[in-house]
Amino acid sequence: MEILSKLKEFIDFINNPPKENVDEKLLKLIDEIFYVFYQIPDRSDDNEYPDPPKHEYEKKYKELRGIFNDYGYYNIPDNVCTKIADTKMNVGDAIDDIADLYFEFSDFIWRYENTSENDAIWYFKNPNKLHWEEHLRDLQYYLFKKIDEESYTEPDA
Q1: Alpha-carbon gap, residue 114 to 154, rounded angstroms
Q2: CA Rg, the chain, in Å?
Q3: Per-residue pLDDT tens digits for 47-56
Q4: pLDDT given at position 102
Q5: 85: alpha, beta or left, given left = phi > 0 and alpha = psi -120 to 50?
Q6: Is 0.85 surpassed by the pTM of this model?
Q7: Minimal CA–CA distance to 76: which of 132, 150, 141?
């Protein structure tokens, strides 16, 4: 299953990021995850299964902070389609995004390998979709703007 391989690729990327062009490569991988995700048909499984193992968020967050030490906080507007130019700004955290995605994707992989493909897909597309998709979209935009802002040079006056 293509989504399984893409999510494993994400986990491997986070655990062992490349030495060069990290932002660009991660941005490309995010695009690929979205593309593959939208190809998956809805599925369900009525069987009862155990939940994936619990995660140690704080430990992983600290580890990721050391690996992605140039990633940080960013602005997120409270309202995007309303209150144009008059909305509160919130603060996002790229490391939190990566940590949450790491665990959401790990849970999908665990379910796929330990329960059933249909169970994994149902959890990924239903109760958890809004959570991981928002983190992935926020991280996607953060990386897009980070690359843009780092490459920007002031025009000569």
Answers
A1: 53
A2: 17
A3: 999 999 999 9
A4: 98
A5: left
A6: yes
A7: 141
Look up the CATH number of the domain holding residue 140. 1.20.120.1550
Q: Is 126 helix (H, G, I), strand (E, B) or coil?
A: coil
Mean pLDDT throughout 43-65?
Answer: 95
Neighbour count for residue 94 (Cβ, 10 Å): 20
Q: Is residue 34 part of a domain?
A: yes
Total domains in the fold of the chain: 1
In a 3-state reduction of DSSP, which class is residue 106? helix
Are 149 and 32 within 8 A, CB to CB? Answer: no
Reported as a single tens digit per residue, the pLDDT across 93-132 is: 999 999 999 999 999 999 999 999 999 999 999 988 999 9
Say how far apart CA 75 and CA 143 lie, in whole Å: 12
Separation CA 43–CA 49 (nearest Å) = 16
DSSP state of 119: H
